[in-house]
Every structure is written in structure tokens, then in C-alpha cells.
């Protein structure tokens, strides 16, 4: 049974459909990457999975259980983690408090998980008393991912985690995503840096106008001359 | 020296009393704003409601405080706080929550809170009448005179003033510890910072809203009761504090509890200093002044009857100089 499955998903905001039939499947230890031109509905699809917009047709399943149009709160309880592209940290709270809020539903595990996150993102340990808003872009992304990981999710949704980061931090974040997935967490992410993202992807989904144009392994998409020509800049 | 004691009694003590009450009121206003994003105009009448609860309990059990050596009103304060919190949560469920779930603009919420305040005023007058009543029913207010060596004039503190200072310190420290140490307190700050992310973290936002009303109701009861102990209970006493309290919250930086405390004291002291008769302090210099300069009997910046203008003057000045308030608050 696949971990996360989206079948023919239609939906959008206020009656205007942005998604016109998206299909996706990822397994428990896989990284799925959504790429595509601007306005293709990449982030919208991620938000649809996390219950942030109304799905008018189709179904999303988590381990075979339908989760279509469940509230984000319910989905967090079921083990889904979401890192938005913007405003993804509590800027006035300290790094440590950001992490604690991630484990709001599991107060008993806070100290153990906090130690794990500090292992995983060492820069955060030194800065744990600083307001998260004062950190650099890369470190903020670490706080954002750390907060989501504190709930021990089985699926992690990342919306453009490397947007605006320097190449050094970009590689570090991709590296961390690989480690997270190797630990058995399914990752579904939207990426602007399509080539690098597809290199670590087990599955790639190329969206255009709210529909799948190509779906294959990351490697196959990278080597597909048609995908390269139309979506990866040659 | 006598003049300094006079200054202490009429500025330091009086300003601290006003400051404490404005601070506790403004913290409530600012907490509601930070979680629910609207200016809650019914806050002052919530203060009166809490005080009314204290008054009714005090009249029902006039001698409850005697065994503890405290005014009965103080002993009844926790019960009244619980009652007012319940009413505050009830008001939210009945009036504000339906509007919230319709996703109305903040101004609609503000107008709804004006409606609530008028309703509360009517209800309070129904139960308490329109006159003033003393919250001290069983004993006289004790007045402490502290003699300073070498000075004829003593420092004067009354029992309610001392209680006021102690309870304010306890409330502020308690709130600080709650917001920085407790899991729910941190969640409250998180929701104020970024409500969408709070929801995405699994924080139960309904619980946080309920908690906000409980804290606001309790603080309102404390502020109203302490004020009425110092003077007397009047149905419109707190309503006249609404504008200075909002000035304090805005001056401090809306949505910032520590800013509200600072703003409360700033507004309180400014008011007191503005109506203080400075000619008393200048009196010792009278003999050395040139003969053509006669010291007037009253040298206050504004007359007492114009006291209410002072908070607005500070408000405008601060907003020009620093539009987000002393501490960086949310821009309305």
C-alpha cells in the first residue's frame, strides 16, 4: 500500500479550479518532487494535500485511508508535517520554542526529539535561545523543517525549501531531505531548482496547467529530452 | 524635604496606582488583540462586571475576610475572577465566535464589542444601581503613615494601595512565567506570531482562544477591583478608563504584553505629573527668587478636569515618533 496517494485531484480557491486532475503516489521511504512552470499548481497541490483548500473532485489517501478535505489539525494528528514556503517559523519565539511548538501534540517526547533535531541541524543548538526571526535564511529553513519533524511525521510536505538560499545551504538542505527520507519518512516537495531536486528524487511529477505532464523516476525525467527541453531549460 | 515627601505622596504613589491599573487593563486588551486581532471595547465594562461580582459576594459574606486579616473584597477576588472568566468565554461563544466563523472584518468585531459594552452597562446598572458603593463593608480602610526622620510630613500609603502593588507584581510575574515557561503560554505567543503555522503545528487554536478570555476576564476583574478598593465602586468608573487603557496598549505596541505594562505606567505617570501642582516643589526657592517673580499658587500643566487629554497627547506623540509603539507592536 503506498504511503501517500492522490488520484485525479481537482480543486482551487473560491470556485476557480487550479488543479485539474493531479495524480501522485509515494512510498514510505521515497522523495517525491513536484516541478513545473510558474502557475502550474505545484504549491496548490501541496496545500490541497494538507487540507488548506477545498478538493472538489478526486481523492487523497494516506496509507489507504481517505484524507480528502480533512482539516490540517486532523492531518497533523495523523502524522503529516507541512513546511510552508513563507512565514514558516514563529519569528518572535526562540529556536527552542519553535521546536517545542512542533511537538505541541506530543509534550512527553519534547526533550528527546529536541536533542535529535539539534544533532540533525547542529547550527540550531548554538542559536537555541535566539529569536528564530534573527537567524539567516538557511538556518530559518532548518528551524522550519525541525519544527515539522518534532511531530515525528510519516509524511513531510516541503514547499520550496531551498527558495532564496545560497548554494551552500541549498546543498545542505537537499542532503538533509535525503537523510529524512532514508529514515523512513515520505517526503513530497515542490522545487524551483528542478534539476538538483530531481537528482535526489525517487519520483518526479512535472505539472503544467494543473495536470501531470510527466510522472516517472527522478532519473528518468532528468534524462528525458522532452522534459529537459520544455521544463528544465535545455 | 517636606516638599519631596509631598512629591512622593502625590506623584510616585498616585502615579504608581494609576499606572498599575492601566497596565493590568492594557495587558488584557493587548492579549485579546494579539490572539483575536480586534480592539475589544467591552474590556472596561468587563472590569466593572468583575468588580460587581466582588461587590455582590462581599455584601453576601461581609465578614469572610476578617479571619485572614484581609479586606473581604480581596478574599472574594478569586471567585469573582472565575465568574468573570466564565462570562467572558460565554460572551465570546455567543457574540464573537459566530462572527469569526463568518470571517468578518476586524471592524465588525470592534462594533460588536461596542454592542456588548452597552449591554453590560445596562446589566450592571440593573444589579448595582447608578450610585457609588464602598467595597469596604466590614472595616475601615487602614492608612499607614511612615515617618521619615527629620521631616514633619509622613509618607502616606493606604491598605488598598499596598494590596494593589502586591497583586500587580504577582499578576505580572505570573503572566510572564506563564507566557515564557508554560506549554500553553508559549502556544499563545506562537498563535499571536503566526496563526496559520500554529494550526499547521497542531496547536488547538480554540483552546487558546478560550484561555485568552479566561486570562483577560481575570485580569479585568483584578484591575477593576483594585481600582474600586482605592476609591469606590461606581458603574461607570472603569468605562472612563477605556480610552487611557487603549492609549497605554497602543503606546506600548499593540499585541506586546510587556509594552502594555510599560505603556500603562507611562500613561499613568504622565497623567499624574500633568496635574501635579509644581508650585509646591518650588516653594523652598521662594526666598531666593527676585521680588518681581511671584510664585503662583497653582502651577499644574493642565487642570484636573482635563486629565483625560493627557493620554491622547502621549498617544499622538508616540505614534508620530514611533508608529508601532515603544516596543515593536503589530501595526493595526
UniProtKB/TrEMBL annotation, chain A:
Keywords: Amino-acid transport, ATP-binding, Nucleotide-binding, Transport. The keyword Zinc-finger does not apply. Pfam families: ABC_tran. GO terms for molecular function: ATP binding. Residues 4-234 form the ABC transporter domain. InterPro entries: AAA+_ATPase, ABC_transporter-like_ATP-bd, ABC_transporter-like_CS, BCAA_Transport_ATP-bd_LivF, P-loop_NTPase. Belongs to the ABC transporter superfamily. This is ABC transporter ATP-binding protein. It comes from Salinicola acroporae. The lineage of its organism: Bacteria, Pseudomonadati, Pseudomonadota, Gammaproteobacteria, Oceanospirillales.
Amino acid at each position: 500500500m503506498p504511503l501517500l496517494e492522490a488520484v485525479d485531484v481537482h480543486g482551487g480557491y473560491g470556485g476557480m479550479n487550479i488543479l485539474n486532475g493531479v495524480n501522485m503516489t509515494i512510498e514510505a521511504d521515497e522523495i517525491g518532487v513536484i516541478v513545473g512552470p510558474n502557475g502550474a499548481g505545484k504549491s496548490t497541490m501541496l496545500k490541497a494535500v494538507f487540507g488548506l483548500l477545498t478538493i472538489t473532485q478526486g481523492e487523497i489517501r494516506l496509507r489507504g485511508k481517505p484524507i480528502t478535505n480533512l482539516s490540517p489539525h486532523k492531518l497533523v494528528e495523523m502524522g503529516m508535517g507541512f513546511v510552508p514556503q513563507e512565514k514558516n517559523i514563529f519569528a518572535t519565539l526562540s529556536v527552542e520554542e519553535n521546536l517545542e511548538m512542533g511537538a505541541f501534540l506530543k509534550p512527553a517526547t519534547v526533550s528527546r526529539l529536541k536533542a535529535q533535531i539539534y544533532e540533525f541541524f547542529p547550527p540550531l543548538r548554538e542559536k537555541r535561545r535566539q529569536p528564530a526571526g534573527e537567524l539567516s535564511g538557511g538556518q530559518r529553513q532548518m528551524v522550519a523543517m525541525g519544527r515539522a519533524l518534532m511531530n515525528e511525521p510519516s509524511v513531510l510536505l516541503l514547499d520550496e525549501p531551498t527558495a532564496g538560499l545560497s548554494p551552500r545551504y541549498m546543498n545542505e538542505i537537499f542532503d538533509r531531505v535525503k537523510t529524512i527520507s532514508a529514515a523512513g519518512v515520505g517526503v513530497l516537495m515542490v522545487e524551483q531548482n528542478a534539476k538538483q531536486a530531481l537528482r535526489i528524487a525517487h519520483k518526479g511529477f512535472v505539472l503544467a496547467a494543473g495536470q501531470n505532464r510527466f510522472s516517472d523516476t527522478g532519473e528518468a525525467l532528468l534524462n528525458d529530452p522532452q522534459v529537459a527541453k520544455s521544463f528544465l531549460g535545455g | 524635604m517636606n516638599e519631596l515627601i509631598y512629591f512622593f505622596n502625590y506623584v510616585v504613589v498616585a502615579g504608581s496606582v494609576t499606572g498599575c491599573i492601566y497596565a493590568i487593563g492594557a495587558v488584557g486588551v493587548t492579549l485579546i488583540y494579539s490572539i483575536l486581532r480586534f480592539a475589544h471595547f467591552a474590556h472596561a465594562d468587563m472590569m466593572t462586571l468583575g468588580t460587581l461580582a466582588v461587590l455582590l459576594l462581599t455584601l453576601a459574606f461581609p465578614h469572610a475576610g476578617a479571619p485572614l486579616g484581609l479586606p473581604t473584597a480581596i478574599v472574594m477576588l478569586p471567585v469573582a475572577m472565575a465568574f468573570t472568566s466564565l462570562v467572558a468565554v460565554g460572551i465570546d461563544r455567543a457574540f464573537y465566535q459566530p462572527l469569526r466563523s463568518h470571517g468578518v472584518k476586524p471592524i465588525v468585531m470592534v462594533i460588536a464589542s461596542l454592542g456588548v459594552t452597552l449591554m453590560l452597562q445596562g446589566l450592571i446598572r440593573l444589579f448595582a444601581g447608578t450610585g457609588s458603593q464602598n467595597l469596604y463593608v466590614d472595616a475601615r480602610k487602614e492608612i499607614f503613615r511612615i515617618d521619615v526622620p527629620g521631616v514633619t510630613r509622613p509618607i502616606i500609603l493606604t491598605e488598598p494601595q499596598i494590596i494593589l502593588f502586591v497583586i500587580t507584581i504577582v499578576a505580572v510575574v505570573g503572566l510572564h512565567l506563564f507566557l515564557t515557561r508554560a506549554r500553553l503560554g508559549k502556544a499563545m505567543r506562537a498563535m499571536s506570531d503566526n496563526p496559520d503555522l500554529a494550526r499547521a503545528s497542531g496547536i488547538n487554536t480554540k483552546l487558546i482562544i478560550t484561555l485568552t478570555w479566561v486570562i483577560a476576564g481575570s485580569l479585568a476583574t483584578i484591575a477593576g477591583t483594585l481600582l474600586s478598593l482605592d476609591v469606590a465602586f461606581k458603574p461607570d468608573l472603569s468605562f472612563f478608563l477605556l480610552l487611557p487603557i487603549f492609549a497605554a496598549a497602543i503606546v506600548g505596541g499593540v499585541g506586546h504584553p510587556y509594552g502594555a505594562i510599560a505603556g500603562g505606567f507611562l500613561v499613568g505617570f504622565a497623567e499624574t505629573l500633568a496635574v501635579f501642582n509644581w508650585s509646591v516643589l518650588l516653594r523652598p526657592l521662594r526666598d531666593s527668587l527676585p521680588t518681581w517673580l511671584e510664585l503662583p499658587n497653582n502651577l499644574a500643566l493642565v487642570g484636573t478636569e482635563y486629565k483625560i487629554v493627557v493620554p491622547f497627547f502621549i498617544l499622538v506623540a508616540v505614534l508620530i515618533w514611533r508608529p508601532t509603539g515603544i516596543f515593536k507592536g503589530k501595526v493595526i
